[in-house]
Design goal:
The protein has about 90 residues and is of the alpha+beta class. Helix content is about 30%, strand content about 35%. It is globular and about 45 Å long.
């Protein structure tokens, strides 16, 4: 897989999600961030699929800015390791 077609999964824990409509607002806000291909949002956080290789230090302020609009704060953020299936 080339760097151009690489994808990164990031898990974020969120504070401020108090109602189901907030989950929808967070999904919409994260979907507007450039490079976010997919966002699975729950009442405790989100898992994002991002285009390319991601620098978490550069990503955090971008996500925080998008989430600030809906009144939600990032507690933690971490890159999930890619699973490699055995080639039997």
């Amino acid at each position: 897989m080339s760097a151009a077609s690489a994808r990164t999964r990031v898990e974020i824990t969120l504070d401020g999600l108090v109602a189901i409509h907030a989950v929808r607002a967070v999904r919409t806000a994260l979907g507007a961030v450039p490079g976010v291909l997919f966002a699975e949002v729950t009442m405790t956080g989100a898992v994002l699929e991002l285009e390319g290789v991601v620098d978490v230090l550069a990503l955090r302020p971008v996500l925080a800015s998008a989430l600030d609009v809906v009144g939600v704060r990032i507690v933690t953020i971490r890159v999930l390791q890619r699973r490699i299936l055995p080639l039997a």
